[in-house]
Amino acid sequence: KYRKHLVNPFHTEKAYEWLLENDQLLDNTLSFADSGGLQELLLGGMVKSPEEIFKWQEKYCDIGFALDKLPFVTENSFNVGWTFDIVNFDKHATTTKERILSGLKVRTEFKSFKFYAIIQGTKYEEYIRWKNIIEQPGIDGWCCKSPTNSPANLAETAVFVIKELDKPVHFLGIGQLTKSIILYYAKRY
Fold it and tell me: What distance in Å separates the CA atoms of residue 116 and residue 170, rounded to the nearest whole number?
């Protein structure tokens, strides 16, 4: 029995709608909605518009992650392997900002829904660059991740969060014990 869910408007959309419509979730369930940015990269193009994603997230979830333009390129036609795209980093951030604005334009007055923007980059300075480009009114929180599985990289991300962010933060993709310990410590701040 789970009270927290991460759903996706591409892969679990219909199943999650059915669960909600048939009262199959436990009381006090918290639902996070992924953005689809990774699916865009892996599928080779945007499947749904930022407005469609935002409307679905707002209707079915508690917290939605903004559709970002991941600063990566796939390494071959099979979309296997990705390379960080530092050359077009600011362009990806600007596209992300435009997508955030598109989503926010369709926001209703449904006050309990929260909209989190994702911070991209591989190190502290890039996180700041990305944040400075995409930040705007209407963002209720942030998502951050570690660029590698190294606990040291997550520690750098946690320092960025502590020093630079003043809204709630969701850490993406943290499941290892060695990385979780860093977040438990960082939560003190």
Answer: 8
Element (H, E) at 65: strand 63-65
Tokens of 49: 């518009």
Q: What is the pLDDT of residues 116-161, one digit of tens each?
A: 999 999 999 999 999 999 999 999 999 999 888 888 999 999 999 9
pLDDT in tens, 65-106: 999 998 988 776 565 667 899 999 999 999 999 999 999 999
Matching residue, tokens 């990566």: 72
Nearest partner of 119 among 148, 88, 92, judged by Cα: 92
- Reading the block at residue 145, the tokens are 């991740």
Q: Could you tell me the CA-to-CA distances from 152 to 37, 123, 161 in Å, in that order?
A: 25, 11, 14
CA–centroid distance for 59 within its chain: 17
Residue 74 β-bridge partners? 82
DSSP 33: E
Look up residue 20 and give its amino acid.
L
User: Using alpha carbons only, what angle is made at residue 84 by residues 83 and 86, rounded to the nearest 5 degrees?
Assistant: 135
**Buried b / exposed e across 93-104, counting CB within 10 Å, b at 16+?**
bebbbebbebbb
Termini Cα distance of the chain = 30
Q: Read off the pTM.
A: 0.91
